[in-house]
Structure formats: structure tokens, C-alpha cells
Design brief:
Strand content: 5-15%
CATH topology of the largest domain: Lysozyme
Radius of gyration: 36 Å
Structural class: mainly alpha
Shape: globular
Strand order of the largest sheet: 4-6-5
Number of helices: 18
Amino acid sequence: MKTVLVITLSLVILTACTMNKAGHQRLSEYNSWLEYDSLRVRMIDLEYSLDSLYIYIDNLYYTIDSLYQALEISNSRVAIHADFQIPDSVEFAGRVFKLNNERIYDKFEMIFNAELKTAHKFIPRSGKYFTLFDSVFASYDIPPDARYLAIAESRLNSMARSRAGAVGIWQFMESTAKGFGLQINSFIDERRNIFKATDAAARFLLSNYKYLSDRGAEDWLLAMSAYNAGAGNISRAIKEQGGYDFFDLILKSDESHKYVWRAVAIKVIFDNEEKIFGHLLEREAPLSQQTRVEKLSLKGHYRIDEWAIAQGTTISRIWEYNPWINIYQRDQKKYSPINDVVMPPGEFDILVPRQAPKNELQLAKIEAELFNPNNGYFSYHTVKKGDTLYDIAKQYNTSIASLKSLNNLKSNVIYPGQKLQLLGSAGARGYYVVKKGDSVAAIAHKLGVSTQHLVSLNNLKWQGGIIIINPGQKLYY
């Protein structure tokens, strides 16, 4: 009996010891997990602190960059005499703007101060263009003060583009530009051709003046307002308000009035330049002194690199002086690794650096080649091993259907060495008859054109997330 009791007691003690040991182990493991979690929390806090520090550093760099930018802008400006007084009246386009009325003066002062901020940019540029403007406006008997409208439009920046799509120094919208004979296509945009755009601007102003004069408003200020607002809108304002004079009308949001007032403020800056800045600002040389005009006749689409070199300059200088020539992206991707300056068929006046020494013999040879209608940049493509019609169409921004039509191809099979015509008369526009089960994407792929091309050309509509087409429908491409 004693023996059994001792054994039992021993088992209880052993069990208790074993359980105590396991408990200690679990407690130890639990404490380890607590320490691990605590460490993780500290690491997360540290990472958060580092992130905050990086954000702070980024903001600091941004602030420094902004300060540098502000300093650069500040240094590029010229000192303005604070004691300059705006005159009581200004003559503009043969009319007197009286500024002694308090309400008018406050309005004009705000406009004047806003224009003054960028005067250090547009005054130097004026030397390059004003002689040309004056000559063109004189030929149409337009008041010479119209020159200041170009500054109100673009600050004399030939590459200016508005959010609405107006382009160039004279800020023509595409439809208006084409209406006055300016070409706009993949290769050129004559809204940036200072000679043609200035002539178009003069004809536009003259057209506005005649249109409004026929309706009883012989006022050049209103014709200038119409350059911004449209002659039809000015005419409607005249009918509604009964006034036939610039000073008698209130135009939409006062925007068109403000446009002319801006031109007046710009004239005040030019007329008082020395009083405002303490000296006359340096001007760029007139275009006629910087460049000479060279005629270029093309029968096909050509790169003009060799022509530029024969003129004694480089293609980059040609492009700089002729911003109306577009860069053609050879690879139709967002970032094209190879770009070319390609000109379309036509007669062009190209500005070349005035002192560039031309090579007459080389130039004569090159110009003879450029006048060949069958040897242009986009006339032919010689098929290389691995070429497909799809690749060729994409490279030259055309379609498989056009290539097949121009080259009388019955299938998509082509072979190395074969010459494919790229441009020319391909007859009437082709069409595809929709079959049951067709989709626009599948048809576009089959024809070698983009889906968007088919949608826009055929005025297709979206419904429930799909483009609606019907069997038997003709899709033109």
C-alpha cells in the first residue's frame, strides 16, 4: 500500500513538473512573439518615419526648385520704375482711349500691370516681326496699331497653341485658317508661317471691317474685337444693344473688349519703354536681316536634308527659321526614335540663314531630283526580307487596302526587291460590306486600318459599350 502511494505521488509530481516545464516553454514562446510583434511595430514606425522624411526631402527639393525658377524668372526681367504714371489718354487705331475716368483707369491699370510682367519677352521679339507686320498692314490700308494684337494673341511666340487649338503668332483656329487659304496637314502647318499667317490675319481684319461696315459699324476697334469674338457675335451685340461704336457696346464677359484694351496697354508699354525701364530693351534683328528666302519646288514628298546642306546650313536651322514645317515621325509610336523633316508637293518659300554659303552646282543637281514626281520620300518602298503589307502601311501611315489598290495586288503576298507605290490616285474610296458576325475591330484588322478610322469616317455610334454595325452595311475606308 505504501509502495503504491509512493508511486502515485511520484507520478503526480512528475506530471506537475512536466506540465510546469511545458507552461514555461509556452510562456517563453509567447513572450518571444510579443517581442517580435513589438519589433515589427517599431520597424513599421521607422519605415513610416523614413517615408515622412523622404516626403519632406521631396517637398524641400520642390521648394528649392521653385525658388530657383522664381529667381531665374526674376533675373530675366528688367527693373521697372515704380514712379511711372499711366497717361490720361492713349491714341489707338485712330481713336482716343480716355483713362481719366476712375472706373476705366482701375480696369486699365490691372490690364497694364499684367502685360508688363511679360514685356521683357515680347519687346525683344518685336524687332524680328514688326517691320513685316507694318509692311503687310500698310498694303491693306489697316491701322498699324494692329501689330499689337499679335502680342495680345501669342506674345509673338510662333509655337504658341491655345487650349482651344488656335496655333501660331496670330492664333488661327484650323477652320478659319483654311478659310483664308492656309495649308494644314501632316507635313506643314502654315498658321506658323509668319508671312502667310500675317497676310491671312490682315485679310481677316479687313473682312471683319467690311462685314461690320455693311451693317453700319465702320469701326476698326470693332473689327479687331471681331478677330477674337467673331464678326457674327459683334453684329448680334450691335442689334441687341443698339450701339455702332466700340465704346457703346458691352461684349460677352467683356472678353473681346478686354482683348482690345490689352493691345492698347501693350502700345502704352512700347510708347513709354524708356520711362518704364530706364532704357530701351535690346531687340532681335528683323527676319529680313537674319535670313534670305529660297524657292523650293517639289513634285513628291521629300526629305530636304541634302537641300539644306547645299544651301550652306543644316536641317535643324531650316526647321528653326521655318516652324511651319512639321516633324514627321517615321515610327508611328508615342516616342519615335527617328524623325524626319519631310516636305509635301508644292511651291514653298524657305527661310535660310542669310550668310549661309550655298553650293550652286550641288543645289542644281538636288533640285532637279526634287522635281521628279516618281522619286519622292513617299513615292515607293522597296520590299525587304521580312516586310509585310501591315508593317509597310504602318510605317508610312497608310492602309493595306490603299497599298493593294495602288499596286494592283490580288493578295497580301509581297517579295524582297519588289517596289510598292505609296502615293497616287487609287480611284474611288473603297468600302467593305458588313457580314453577319463581323465586328468593327475585326474589319479594321482585315482592311489594315484603325478602328477609330472606320468609326469616324462612317460616323458609327456606340451603344452599350459596343460599336453598332449591321449586316449589309457599307463601311468606307
